[in-house]
Amino acid sequence: MKPFIGMPSDSDPKIHGFTDYIDDNVAQAIIKAGGVPVILPPNNSEEIAKDYVKNLDGIAFLGGPDIDPTLFGEEPIAKIGSTSLIKDKFEIALCRQAYQAGKAIFGICRGIQIISVALGGTVFQDFPSQSEDAFIKHHQDAPIFYPSHHITTEAGTKAETILGDHPYVNSHHHQTVKEPGTELFVSGRAADHAVEVVESKKNDQVLAVQWHPEFLFDTKPEEMELFRDFVERSKKSY
Fold this sequence. Notes:
Layout: E1 4-8, E2 10-14, E3 17-21, H1 24-33, E4 36-40, H2 46-55, E5 58-61, H3 85-100, E6 104-108, H4 110-118, E7 122-124, H5 127-130, E8 149-153, H6 158-163, E9 168-169, E10 176-179, E11 184-190, E12 195-200, E13 206-209, H7 221-233
C-alpha cells in the first residue's frame, strides 16, 4: 500500500476567507516517488494535529513565510518578513506529534526551520545580517529550477549517501537554522556555514534541507532520491 504523506498548506487571504494551497511540484515529486500527497490546512487545534498524525504515514513540511521569532524566545527584528502565527503553531504541534508517534518527517526550506524550532532549536531571523560569516547569495535571482551554490555534506551521513559530498543546489531563503535542537544534528552546510541539511540523531526518522528539491528533481537524480527516501521512510515506524 502506498504511504499517505501529509503536507501543511500555505494560506492566502481572500475576500471570502482564506485559500489554502501547496506548490504542485512537491505533490508531483511525492507521487513520482510512490507516495500519496494530502494537503493539511492550518488550524488552531492540537487535537486535529493528533488526528492527522494518526492517519498519515509521513509529514512533509514545505516552504512558506518566515517563522514568528517569539516561538523561539526572540522579538522580531527589522529585516524579518511576513509571518503566520496560526500556521507556525499548527506545524510545530504537527511536527512534535509526528516525531513522538515515530512517523517519517521531511523538510524543505521553511520546513527545515519549523522542524528545528519544534524540536527545541532556533533560527536566524535574517541570516545575511545576523551572521558575520554570511557571504553567499541565498536568495538567488536565477530561476529556481537552476542550482546556484554548492554545499558540503558530512561524511557517513544520510545526506552524503543521497546527495554526495558536494551537491549543487538552488537557494531561496534569508532565514536559516541557527541551533537545530537536541534531537537533530547538522549534516550539511554552505561555504558560509549556513545550515543546509539536518538529520535526527537516533535514527533516520528526520531529514530536512534548506533548498527546494521539488524544482530540481526532474533534472538532478539525487534530488529525486530525497523524495524516494522519504516515501520509503514513511513505510516504517520509528
